[in-house]
Design goal:
6 strands; two-stranded antiparallel ribbon; Lipoprotein; Nuclear Transport Factor 2, Chain: A; signal; alpha+beta
């Protein structure tokens, strides 16, 4: 993204049967019958299923994963080619949900106007707002981040800049990441919106 977005056993029970034993003697006398075992059946103890460890065990782990994912996302966006190209598909694969839809819409708008981006984008000051498992067992990380577009320009087919020279070059964003499933620690960019409060960049 080069311009600010528009926004984890089954328990088994085994019962022990009571057995009646009768004993005989060589003297010809029958021993008194052994009384039946009246002990109540005992369930076999089984180990409780181990809970799967959390995907991200700490704020630091969540932050490191988010930073790595966002770095890969911006780098792929800087080199993404035309819609349908391998580089574009690789870039889109790093997104999901609203973010993916927004990237496609933005790309089509650029193409319709004959515009493209040159240069590189970067970020800094990422902090974790919250992280944890969702009801469907996937994980979500919400972050604050400063997006820096000072080294990126929107140009037309002749290479002339068409970016507004007065627009900010640093944008305060709220970036949301999701894991694609409950067992994965891969993060996909799900949402990226401009922070509406005081500019922290």
């Amino acid at each position: 993204m080069r311009n600010p977005p528009r926004r984890r056993p089954v328990h088994r029970t085994v019962l022990t049967a009571a057995v009646l034993f009768l004993a005989g003697t060589l003297s010809g006398c029958l021993a008194a019958p052994v009384p039946p075992n009246t002990t109540s059946p005992v369930a076999e103890a089984t180990a409780a299923p181990a809970e799967a460890p959390p995907i991200f065990a700490s704020n630091d782990e969540a932050l490191a994963a988010a930073e790595a994912a966002y770095t890969a996302y911006l780098s792929a966006g800087d080199t993404a080619g035309e819609i349908g190209s391998d580089s574009w598909n690789d870039y889109l694969a790093l997104t999901t949900g609203r973010e993916r839809d927004g990237e496609i819409e933005t790309k089509k708008e650029l193409d319709d106007n004959g515009w493209r981006f040159t240069g590189t984008t970067s970020f800094d000051s990422m902090t974790v707002q919250s992280f944890g498992a969702l009801s469907n067992a996937t994980w979500e990380i919400k972050t604050y981040v400063c997006l820096d577009v000072s080294q990126s320009q929107k140009v037309d087919t002749t290479g002339q800049a068409v970016s507004d020279p007065n627009q900010p070059t640093r944008w305060p964003l709220v970036v949301v990441f999701y894991t694609p499933d409950e067992m994965s620690n891969q993060l996909l960019i799900a949402e990226s919106t401009v922070w509406s409060g005081s500019n922290f960049c």
